[in-house]
């Protein structure tokens, strides 16, 4: 069942029913100010940090779904309705939500009145603009009252929902004209405040939630709106809100437009105050003066569209497959940019007060957006590396506002160091910028302990070399990519982590998955060494990689697939020897794409086993058989019911590893089959089963053991976005950046047909036409660059050259 459709020409997903299976959201904002907005106008806004600088409240885990947002109520006689349906849920005569790239549009109609909303965050200002246009489509004059509504968060979202004994006494507001100032904590901090304003005179306002809603009422039945008259309340403590009342009279066919601005403001650092509770209005005036008219909004909206059109044009596909085109050209790249901004911090599944930016997460996200914003990728790499420790390990998460490591989570995830190599390698291959490797970067953000980034990478590499277990495989530490596979748990110490044990007792659990990572990214580290003429270090790195390959061949192969790990007792995980959890996706995907045992045919055997034992119609499961009882020695993984999350769920994040691995052995049909199973455009028709947004990837889909097989969770903020774009753009379509230029080596289904690619790479634009007259899955028979035949698959890079015209014949 579908709840909308793709409008590819406008780069929008059009939702035609407000009653989607779950809230379907969009992200507004490109730089420092962000909003989440659902298809019924739910969501919230923040500046830079969703925890520490939250402007508006949102209630997670609440009923009904999607509680709190930025609402407009329209009172037409005795009828009260919302253009986005929520929160009154008054049945509408017409409804439409268009989620676009960095903006959302809403249209609702009731009793001859149509209301349209355009919501977006302008490129260079810290605010959200809401343009509301109301039209009388009836044959009679309409007298309407419009009420805006937002509920302020008291800045620290974590404290806001816990510290009631203080927070119910600190809310402060001020109203001047049509502008409502939210100045809670201004006495204390004196540097920031929020505003909500409209570009017209108002007929009333409210800033007290209790006065606006009435006792025991919810936003679905606010007293003020039902009575048709604002109370001009001034909040003093309790729960401050911002609501404007505007009374309008519309002749038949007449429209009125209003511009609302929800903004964050800061005062200059050296500003002095005569009174601590008086907000300096200059920053707000400067902001609001920029958005007084529809023309101001249209100009800002055009700038936003120009920005996104420029970004998305950097990789463009034209093929006979509309679904692949729309995902590659629009939605997959857009989601990669959102994960760049958010990491895993703020979504409808991440509250914005917990995880912050992830070390592993942000490095993987970089793989998907580095071609779009390489200069910001450079900054992100430095931020990530600055949280690393001197021994090469790292904080697993860092706080986005301060860039400091999260000491509550700490370190010990032993895959983290290698992801820094992966991200840096991707950046250097994309840009050719070797100067980043000589950039001075601190350890643990201590500038007195700074070395070059290249030294950071060496310590990342050597961390694995220096932390091996009894089988010469990498120690897993607290966990590797699978955070729930905690193999250093000991039954004699229930509930304690491995850190409570001394070196003689452990931890000794090992990860074959990290071994696969080490082989792939160890080679990429060696290539970076060669770029800096560090030939001895490159040779050392490759020797270590070869040792790791041998260790996997000896201890990591189970006969038909790669073992997943060894636990603290030396028992295999992901082996025929196990009663449950006999085969895992991670080690088989990564060891295969790394090419371990390629000459012996191991990847083909492993991938055949993955298809036979892990595949479902909705994607490849993470393991089988599912764990049916709790295993303390495995940690959190078996705490989930069978079929969910790490216990035999379908992790969309690592399905691309299997698809990429299939391309390395030339099986384009199978690679594309795996790609399609989790691709939103291909599963739009089963939205009643899948439930999450049909235009972006989710982290997880319930596996075959789950009661709701095929149901997704955790959409938007997932490494699935980056890894899927890497898979489709670099391996299936085959356009892979190397240090010496772009390589073009597609691996596609036999019936995929011819296609063209436009790719911005360094200074050049590459216009590439691929033909496949023999309908092969892989193989380049001819590569012609600007009329000259080139041997191999790499298009030679020429510094300063602006245009490359490339013809590729597969065969």
TrEMBL record:
GO biological process: carbohydrate metabolic process
GO terms for MF: carbohydrate binding; glycosyltransferase activity
Lineage top rank: taxon: Bacteria
Domain Glycosyl hydrolase 94 catalytic, first and last residues per copy: 307-734
Keyword Glycosyltransferase: yes
Keyword Glycosyltransferase: yes
Domain (Glycosyl hydrolase 94 supersandwich): residue spans on this chain: 11-293
Annotated InterPro entries: 6-hairpin_glycosidase_sf, 6hp_glycosidase-like_sf, Gal_mutarotase_sf_dom, GH65_N, GH94_catalytic, GH94_Enzymes, GH94N_CBP, Glyco_hydrolase_94_b-supersand
Record keywords, A-Z: Glycosyltransferase, Transferase
Protein name: Glycosyl transferase
Organism the protein comes from: Agathobacter ruminis
